[in-house]
Amino acid sequence: MKEASLHQLRTFLRVVERGSLSAAARDLGTTQPTVSRQLQELEVAYGNVLVIRTTRSLRMTDAGRMVYEQAQLMVRSEDILRERLRGDSAEVEGRIRIAAPSGFGAFVIAPFCGCFVERYPKATLELCLTDSESDLISEGLDVAIRIGQLADSSLFARRVATLEEVVVSHPRYLKQPVARPADLQALPWVAFSGSLGRDDVEFERRGCKRKIRVMPRLKIDQIIGHREALLSGAGVGLIHRYAVDRDIRDGRLVRFLPDWGLPEWPVHLVFPARAQTHRLRVWCEELQQTLQGIPGVS
Questions:
Q1: CATH 3.30.565.10 corresponds to the domain 91-161+265-291
Q2: pLDDT for 244-277, tens place per residue?
Q3: Which pTM value belongs to this model?
Q4: Which strand ranges, in their side-by-side order, compose the sheet holding 165-169?
């Protein structure tokens, strides 16, 4: 019986991540029959069916999931070994799979990734924008960006930034004077109802804390839509500054109570394993540097 090869494992990983043999073949620069043969050989080597294929879908078996998780570790370890053997001559090349929240991903991470692949043309990035908490191992992710306090887990995390929040609205709401947090309760609110949303807003100034409860007339579960509603004049909202800083500077939105502080949100990079490839380390380091130049991010 032939043993499984790393080449077959790489093919299997790509089949699972792409969801079809034809898509995996295109990514790998080979043919669908070749991918199918490698998958069959891998199943023979392990003595188990790894995927169940139909004309429309591909699903891993329990054995396939076990192989998938171990294959990720084996392929990552081999990549790291190759890079260490090359030493300082290691290039930034290969694939990085990233998950990020939809708003932060669209406003911040996607532009950064575009610049990154321009600097490193041998690198390939796959960015998944989702407001659900991704399972790094089952989804084959190299890194996920998480905003807010982290739940206890076996994952490895690195804090890279802090996000500032602001209270803003369309300029027409300036007609009603707002001198203190309680004055905001009289205005209509548009709230973010995603995983970071809340109805209590706590302000702080020189050690003095004030908490108000708002009753939103509109709730939106994505920051991109939240920003659009605020620009349309739907009401007042609490939103991360990175998403609206340019709107504030250009006068499309106005900021209330800038001398009052609001809770800050930590940003972490989360990894499925402590050891990281050279390309991923470079990506993380450059992202952290880029974040420091974005308004509302520190």
A1: no
A2: 999 999 999 999 999 898 988 999 999 887 777 8
A3: 0.74
A4: 237-240, 165-169, 254-256
